[in-house]
Each structure stands twice: as structure tokens, then as C-alpha cells.
Write a structure and sequence with these properties.
Blueprint lengths: L1 H19 L6 H5 L12 E4 L4 E6 L6 E3 L12 E3 L4 E4 L13 E3 L4 E5 L12 E3 L4 E4 L13 E3 L4 E5 L12 E3 L4 E4 L13 E3 L4 E4 L13 E3 L4 E4 L14 E3 L4 E4 L13 E3 L4 E5 L12 E3 L4 E3 L9 H5 L7 E3 L22 E3 L6 E2 L13 E3 L4 E4 L27 E3 L4 E4 L13 E3 L4 E4 L13 E3 L4 E5 L19 E3 L10 E4 L6 E4 L8
Parallel strand pairs: 2-4, 3-5, 4-6, 5-7, 6-8, 7-9, 8-10, 9-11, 10-12, 11-13, 12-14, 13-15, 14-16, 15-17, 16-18, 17-19, 18-20, 19-21, 20-22, 21-23, 22-24, 24-25, 25-27, 26-28, 28-30, 29-31, 30-32, 31-33, 32-34, 34-35
Antiparallel strand pairs: 1-2, 36-37
């Protein structure tokens, strides 16, 4: 009879819980009923031997309200998942009665208050998830009493202070997520004690100072994400020697300086490497080509250079050995030089190539047309010259911010050639880019007339042809009805409507014929 009473007690707790919370989807209303055995209710699991509720999973049910204190009366509870709801308020102290708990997940709610210091009494706890709430204050020392803790996710709260050195006591941790808080100070060297760690995410805090050398001695780790902090100093010269399982390394948006150590490529399992938005300098390592699994390499916005005074980017030849590479960003580095023909040796896996703001000179090599999988090619704001190679027409997947002259790319939405030194006429084939919404040719040396075929671009909303050497009549139909003078300012000798702030186009009668011809005065407009 005692067993029946205990199970009945658990049922009473759940019915009180149902009455306490708002259930706009009627999930509990339609399922938690005394007409059915409590162990058959949705989200409920029982243990046969004791006939008690051991698991409560009410995740993704859209529940609202506060967590009622009598939930602490489910004394056999081992598993509690209330994630992805809209619970608010604080976590009640009565949850400390659940001394059998091994799993707590309140991720993605609206809970608030100080970080619950009582959590340290739940000595059997293995997983603690409080992600994406509004908990504030310091990480309490009591947390580090949880010697069995395997996964700890406190990300996306407003926890502040420093990361306590006692974090090293949690020697069984495989996952540590503290991202998106207000944590400050240096990363404690004791994190190096977490020799079972698989995933370490500290991004988007205010952490500063160098990375402790012990940090890169965790041989089990597959993910390290430190981006968007204020970390500084050099990367250790032996950074990749003890990271045989590392797949993702994110150090973007910090204040790191110095060269990129060649040893980073000893982490041979790397899939993604993001070193962007720092102050790294020196040559781009040729050893990147050893990373045969690499899919993403982001070196954007540093002070990296090519490895010698040779004009070509010879490091690209090494990178072509990365046959899985999909995303390559070299933009906003003072690389200078010219694009080598070896760019055409990348595999069809390459989808995104960014080399804008790199002080590139010379022509775009014909071999770029070999990149059959390319979706985004960004080369704007360089010093490129010559004509655009017709081989770009092979890039049938191309879309996004790219230079192209080929009308066969029917799905192209945006083209930017701005800020280079391209010359020659605008090809009339642009009129076949029927999906085009934005077209920017500004700041080049393009000449000749604006093709009337562009009047067919019915989706074109943005046009910038300013600061070139264009001449002749500005088209008047189609999208040209909405463009202003800013689209055409600073050209050689354009003419047309007065609203575009250009001279009118003049006609004259050829004495040898009755045909009307167009006379284009060669005005020069000074900015």
C-alpha cells in the first residue's frame, strides 16, 4: 500500500504543477488526467521497482509561469528537462530535495535571479543546462563540488566576474559552455586540467590577456571557440602539437598579434579555422595545405602578407591541396601582388572566395573559370585591371557579390565590381540577368555607352555607375525610371533627362542624309 501512496503522491505533485502553469497549447490539459495511469502521461517515466516517477520531460511544450516549489517533492526524480518553454522567475530552493537528480535542463526559458548557489548540493548531477535565461551574478564556488558533472552549459545569461580557478576541479567535464555572458579577467590555467573535455565555448565575453599554454594540451578537445573577447598576445609556437582531435578552432575578433605558427597545422583533423579580425601579421603559412579535412579558413581583417617579394600568391598553391575547402576568406589583408593561375586548381568544393580589400593588381586569371562550385566571388576594392575573363561564364552556380559579365547566370541577384580599375564597355549581356536586384560598377574606368538591354532588368532596385568614363544617352525605360543622379555622377559624357543632372542629348541632321544622328558633347564634370 505504501508504494501506491508514493505514486499517488507523485501524481498529486504533477496535477498541482499542471494547475500552477499556463498551458496555451493544452498539452498537459489533454494528457495529464486521473483517467489514465500517471506513468503513461506524456513526458513521464517511472521506475518499475519502486513505482515512482524518475523522469519529467516537459520540453518544447510552450508552458508559461513560474517553477512551483512542490516540484521538489518528486523525490525519486533523476531526469528533469523543462527546456524551450517560457518559464520565468527564479528556480525554487526546494529543488535541493531532488538529491537523486543527474540531469537538469532549463535551457531557453526566461528564468532570472542570481545564479542558484544551492545547485552544489546535488552531488549526483552530471548535466546542468541553464542556457539562454537571465541569470546574473558570480559563478558560485559551490558549483565546483559537483565532481560528477559531465556537461555544463551556462551560455547566454548575464553571469559576470571571472572564471574561478576551481573550474579545474570538474575533471569529468566533456562540455563547458560559458558563452554570451559578462565574464572578465584571464582564462584560468586550471582549464588545462579538464583532460576529458570535448567542447569548450567561451565566446562573446570580456575575457582578456593571453591564452594559458595549458589550454592547448587537452588532447580530447574537438571544439575550441574563444571568438569575440579581448584576448591578446601571441599564439604558442607549439599550438597544434597536442590537439590531435581538434576539428574547430575559433579565435576571431580578439587582439592576437604575431605570426600564425606553422605548428597549427599539426592539428590535422581541423575542419574549421577562424582567425579573422585580429592583428596577426607575417606570411600566410604554406603548411595550411596539410589540413586535408579543412572546409573553412577565415583570415579576414588581419595584417597578413604573402610569403616573399614574388608578385603571385604562392600560398594558394598549397591551399589547393585542401580538397574539401568550401569557404576561403583572405579579405582585408595587405597581401598585394596578383592572383596566380593556380587559383583554378581548387576543387569543385570551393563555394566562397573573398579577396576584397587585398591591394590586388593585374588581371583576373582565366583559370578562375575552373571553380565550378563557386557561389560567391568577392574581389571588390582592389586595383585589378584589364577585362573580366569570359571563362567566368562557366561558373553556373555563381551568386552574391561577384564580378561577372555573363548573361547566362539567370539567378544572379547582386553584382559588385566597385573600386577596381576595370576598363572597356559594359557588355550588353548583362540585360539577360533577369533576377538582378543590385548592380555596382562605381569607381572603375569603364567606357562606352550604357547598354539599353539593361532596361529589361525589371527587378533592378539599386544601380551605381558613378565615377567611370561612360558616355551617351542614359536609358529611360524599365528600372531607369526610378534611378537618381547619384547613380551616374562623375562620368565622361553622359546625357539625358535633366532630373539626372546631365546635359540633354542633342540631335543633328547629317547634310548628306535625312537620317537623325545623336551628337554627344564631351563634357567634363568636376567633383
Amino acid at each position: 500500500m505504501a508504494t501506491v501512496k508514493n505514486l499517488t503522491t507523485d501524481q498529486s505533485v504533477l496535477l498541482e504543477f499542471k494547475d500552477h502553469v499556463a498551458d496555451p497549447r493544452s498539452v498537459l490539459t489533454n494528457n495529464w488526467s486521473i483517467l489514465y495511469p500517471v506513468c503513461s502521461w506524456i513526458g513521464i517515466s517511472c521506475v518499475t521497482r519502486h513505482q515512482r516517477i524518475t523522469a519529467l520531460n516537459i520540453s518544447y511544450m510552450g508552458l508559461q509561469g513560474t517553477i512551483p516549489p512542490h516540484l521538489g517533492n518528486l523525490s525519486f526524480l533523476v531526469y528533469l528537462d523543462a527546456s524551450y518553454n517560457s518559464f520565468h522567475g527564479h528556480l525554487p530552493n526546494e529543488l535541493t530535495r531532488l538529491h537523486r537528480l543527474r540531469y537538469i535542463n532549463f535551457n531557453y526559458n526566461e528564468l532570472s535571479g542570481s545564479f542558484p548557489s544551492w545547485i552544489g548540493v546535488l552531488s549526483k548531477l552530471q548535466t546542468l543546462g541553464l542556457r539562454n535565461n537571465s541569470f546574473r551574478g558570480l559563478i558560485p564556488n559551490s558549483l565546483f563540488n559537483l565532481s560528477k558533472l559531465d556537461k555544463l552549459d551556462l551560455g547566454l545569461n548575464t553571469v559576470d566576474g571571472s572564471i574561478p580557478s576551481k573550474i579545474g576541479n570538474l575533471s569529468k567535464l566533456t562540455l563547458l559552455n560559458l558563452d554570451g555572458n559578462n565574464l572578465q579577467g584571464e582564462i584560468p590555467k586550471e582549464i588545462g586540467n579538464l583532460q576529458k573535455l570535448d567542447s569548450l565555448v567561451l565566446q562573446s565575453n570580456n575575457l582578456s590577456g593571453p591564452i594559458p599554454p595549458t589550454f592547448f594540451n587537452i588532447s580530447t578537445v574537438t571544439l575550441i571557440n574563444l571568438l569575440d573577447n579581448q584576448l591578446s598576445g601571441h599564439l604558442p609556437s607549439t599550438i597544434g602539437h597536442s590537439l590531435p582531435n581538434l576539428e574547430l578552432l575559433g579565435l576571431s575578433t580578439n587582439n592576437f598579434v604575431g605570426i600564425i605558427p606553422n605548428s597549427i597545422t599539426n592539428a590535422s583533423q581541423l575542419i574549421g579555422l577562424d582567425l579573422s579580425d585580429n592583428s596577426f601579421s607575417g606570411p600566410i603559412p604554406k603548411t595550411f595545405g596539410n589540413l586535408r579535412f579543412l572546409r573553412l579558413l577565415n583570415l579576414w581583417k588581419n595584417y597578413l602578407t604573402r610569403e616573399s617579394s614574388a608578385a603571385e600568391w604562392s600560398f594558394l598553391s598549397s591551399l589547393t591541396h585542401c580538397r574539401n575547402l568550401r569557404y576561403l576568406a583572405l579579405a582585408s589583408n595587405p597581401l598585394g601582388g596578383i592572383l596566380p593561375s593556380s587559383i583554378g586548381n581548387f576543387s569543385a568544393s570551393l563555394q566562397n572566395f573573398y579577396a576584397n580589400y587585398c591591394k590586388l593588381k593585374g588581371n583576373i586569371p582565366q583559370e578562375i573559370g575552373n571553380l565550378s562550385g563557386l557561389i560567391v566571388l568577392s574581389l571588390y576594392n582592389n586595383k585589378l585591371n584589364g577585362t573580366i575573363p569570359t571563362t567566368v561564364g562557366r561558373l553556373q552556380q555563381l551568386q552574391g557579390v561577384i564580378p561577372t559579365t555573363i548573361g547566362g547566370l539567370k539567378d544572379l541577384v547582386t553584382i559588385s565590381l566597385a573600386g577596381n580599375q576595370f576598363q572597356g564597355p559594359i557588355p550588353g549581356s548583362f540585360g539577360s540577368l533577369i533576377s538582378l536586384e543590385s548592380l555596382d560598377f562605381s569607381g572603375n574606368n569603364l567606357s562606352g555607352k550604357i547598354p539599353k538591354s539593361l532596361e529589361a532588368l525589371s527587378h533592378l532596385k539599386t544601380l551605381n555607375m558613378s565615377h567611370n568614363r561612360l558616355e551617351g544617352e542614359i536609358p529611360t525605360n524599365g528600372p531607369f525610371k526610378i534611378f537618381s543622379a547619384q547613380s551616374f555622377f562623375g562620368n565622361y559624357a553622359l546625357c539625358g533627362s535633366s532630373r539626372l543632372q546631365v546635359p540633354p542629348c542633342k540631335q543633328y541632321i547629317n547634310k548628306g542624309s535625312k537620317k537623325t544622328a545623336l551628337f554627344v558633347p564631351k563634357y567634363i564634370f568636376l567633383a
